[in-house]
Amino acid sequence: MNEEKKKLDIDAIPGERWFPKETTFEEDMNQYWGDWGVSSEVDTLKAVLLRRPGKEVEHFDAAEYRFADVPVDVELMRRQHDAVARIYKEHGVKVYYVEEQREDRPNAVFCRDLMFMTPEGAIITRPGMAARRGEERYIAKALADLGVPIVRTINGDGMFEGANAMWVDRKTVVLSTGSRCNCSGYEQVETELRRMGVTEVIHMQQPYSNIHIDGLMNAASNDVVMVHASQVPYDVLDVLKRKGYKVLEAPSTTEVRETFGCNFVALSPGLVLMPEGNPRCQALLEENGIKVLTVDVSEIMKGRGALHCITAFLKRG
């Protein structure tokens, strides 16, 4: 006679009890990283990253690094840089610094080129010039120390510099190709932006005579943009006009090219900080309702860049 077999009653393996927090990275930013993020060129500026000129500007070959032939007054350059930082602070902007940098990179003062800030964090660039490559490592270190997320570092054969991109609004970015941004760099940046919800990436071909957008075009408010008309493609401005922007044509090629009349920084919509020495560009902005502050950055301009070039935005709005 067979004995009745006992059936083993084995407990079921329990299901997952830790469920995901279904929020976006942008929504989590303040809680886990800090008050960072940019999706505008004009919303109230709240935090920036700068590189105060260090040992790298004390001894270098001007021709090798594309500086002007006139020698740089190092201490004056530092005082002018400090004056810019002071104006930012007076307008409620938190100013952070890249404390460490290679001593053979005098262009490192131009921080805009080394990163592009997004709503989710920074894209670390890969400069086009051999004379600048490697600066981005120290921007990355400064951002990591601050707790700013790094969402991508341009890699492979990609080249891209931060001034090759310009926010139009949260869903729209102008992205340029030229000697400082190739197709690979463009595609890497476009991929990140579209993943973040950017739906319109406007391609801008940089002219042979210019390397960055901010030397040719800059927004002063949510509906006013100043441009060097002969150098900005029609298709780019057509998009801006359709979005409600009034296009102001810089009245002086000399001011655009030599004293950086388009290379200003919006402190808030309708309030900009502009390099001294651009009376015609300044007057045109003021005639169109833009309040303009000016600051002397003549020594910094010997490196062929100005206010927008030295300022990496970390937080707007």
Automatic annotation (TrEMBL):
An annotated GO BP: L-arginine deiminase pathway
GO molecular-function term, one example from the UniProt record: transferase activity
A Pfam family assignment: DDAH_eukar
Entry keyword set: Transferase
Domain of life assignment: Bacteria
Name of the protein described by the UniProt record: Amidinotransferase
Native organism: Emergencia timonensis
